[in-house]
Predict the structure.
Amino acid sequence: MSFLPLLMAQSARAEVNQKEQTIITKIKRLSEREQPATNISGLFAQSSTPSLEIIPVTGVKANPTEKGVEIILQTSKGEQLQITNSSTSNNFIADITNAQLRLPNGDGFTFRSEKPTVGITEITVTNFDAKTIRVTVIGEKSLPVVELFDGDEGLIFGVASTETATKPPETPQTEAKPATETPQQDNPIELVVTGEQDGYRVPNSSTATGTDTPILETPFSVQVIPQEIIRDQQITQVKDALSNISGVTYGGDVQGRSGNTFSIRGFTGAPVLLDGFRRFGSSGEGSSQPNFEVANLEQIEVLKGPASILYGAIEPGGLINLVSKKPKAEPFYETELQVGSRGFVRPRFDISGPLTDDGKVLYRLNGLFQNFNSFQNYEQPDQRYFIAPTIAWKINDRTDLNISLEYANSTRPAIFGIPAVGKGVADVPRDRIITEPSDTVTNITTNIGYTLEHRFDANWKLRNAFRYTSYEYDFGVVALPLFFDEATSTVGRFLASQESQNKDYTFQTNVTGKFATGDIKHTLLAGIDYVYRDSRIFSAVDFTFRPLNLFNPTYGLVKPSEDTLLGFGGSTTTGNSWGFYLQDQISILKNLQLLAGIRYDTLSLNTVNIPGSSTLAGESATNATAFTPRFGLLYQLSDRLSLYGSYSQSFAPNTATTVTGEVLPPQRGKGYEFGIKSEFLNGKLFATLAYFDVTKQNIAVTDPNFPLFSIASGEQRSRGFEFDLSGEILPGWKIIASYANINGEVTADTNGANIGNKLFGLPENSASLWTTYEIQQGDLQGLGLGLGFNYVGDRQGDLENSFSLGSYFTTNAAIFYKRDKWRIGLNFRNIGDVKYIESAFGGRGASNNFGDPFTVIGSISVQF
């Protein structure tokens, strides 16, 4: 390591408002210099012509030294850095004018150390603009002393106060320790990192293991959609974000409820969680879930494969976890306005910062209003109000409490799909509807809860959390399409209304501990969770037949008031579920890791019928218990390459009954997975290649001897390959891509004709690509372009494989411009205006939905 004196500050230079500035355009090692320079002027005289290359800094570290602290900017090109330094009052500022922080998970971070050493109040390192890193050192009483080192790790700022810098050494120079001994680096000074990741690659995830584990060291397939992709693609719906991930398909709205269903690896009903809590339904059923707002999301994580060990009753394909934004320690204010096709308007705000002077209580508040018109012939626009306040309280150094609320209220068309005709979906205009233009549905979603975390020491911590979730929907009076007669092209409709209230109360407690048994390291996770569910649904109907011709429709039904409809019937369901789990992540060797865990679930549901014209009074109960293990093994061939294999199980209760009145045993899932994970380009680019084989058993199918009842003999199997890639190829060039080849089929059914049929809605081949490039310097710095596509192969519309949904290929593009705190963007979706079926819910009736036509969305946002 060579030593280059950058600045020896004297107290006289600390006069208020006095400012000095010096430019250093090249830093050399001592062995390369003809004569050591003793001041800044000397360094400047020996410098060469500045380089236009933007030098990446891949990490920031802080270590204590004898006189203070050293800040290390990790780079392999430290000698090429160009530095401008200045001082004002007690502040030393160094601008590195040809460098950027290029971290694996983005560049939008600030590194801060408060009172790192005697006489120094604060040190910060941040990206000042698109080509400058700013290092700021604030002295407590006077201007600090800063010296510059060009070391093997990169550029090193040696920082000390005037008092410690001039203090003579305690031992003679001849007794100094050898230069090879650097014990101070064994205890690095803490650097607090603030800011939001702004890259396409997220290195860590807790969804798969329940602990904050690097994805490279996780023996399961995990993909993450970070906030940068949501922003670049101007995503306003979760379904559009998930189109970037292999093996995930959208099932569409269900019976007009304005809900969402998703399939992973061909298995429908993949649950959507918010911060690890299920958003709606605690029983693993594949019911429709409410529309999810992305404005308050930090990222979206997808865990593939059976995952009951941490999440209880679940489908074997996997799950989706929405990770919400957290309060910031520094004041943050952002506002955005989006406008676009079909009257789309979406103003949004996001503000955060400390509520108290000591910074122990932080807040964050997200809110928006949204309005747009459907591309179909509905009169009601889609309107939404959303608010999400969050409070974070650092009770003490070991205890944190977070309290959060989300409230969403939306009114939108009651969307039903198009029926099948022959071997495909009916060939009608994309704007065709089979209900009434005035049909609407209102949805209200509320989430409120807390998370309390206490750290006993550096190795053990306790987490306790609660979440109340409420989801309500209410139709007015709608024209409900109950059947379709292909011979006459007639849709059979009846006027109906329906309302539903669903409430979940979820408690989670777990403890995480790190310890060693000899040379073997453990990360232990043990927990318990409890869910109480209360659900009510009631329908009313007018049984007067109101036909509609699919190919020549006439609208304009006169609707009666809701209270004149005949009570059709309904039900109330209450349920309890307990889960107990234990998991150990074991580092057997430095590069060999084993994960093993087991869970026990007990679940009970009780349903009471609400009498009506078609429902008799009655009561039924469902009880289920299950043990679900999982195992994973991961071997790191290098710091950048891992091989892994895993086996896991899942379960979900059946509610169907046999002819004797017994509830069917739970559905069971089991899955094997083998894969390879790799980092490229110094961790900026990440790829996963996986092979999987998942089977779902005990599926309720029709009893061949008693067709009104069921037996648990159905089986489905899904196997194939998936590839996902995300990150940054070069500075400014980002990419996310995916490909899946999946064979999903029915392997057992009482109807022999179904055996060998494809799972509905699942393409054998699908692929996606999205890439952006942002100019890094020059007059056009901040200007960027984006281009991508989504390909979905042919899909079957139902398990009988009676009709096809077809394939589609859509192209998307974007242009954007960033300058200082401003961002302007323009996105184009489905540029070719391709007409296609986006989603289906497994039937020939009103369950097949068109995808959006050509759409333009523009935005302008500012942070301050």
Remarks:
- Residues 40-46 form the longest helix (7 residues).
- Residues 52 and 778 are 10 Å apart (CA to CA).
- The chain has five helices and 53 strands.
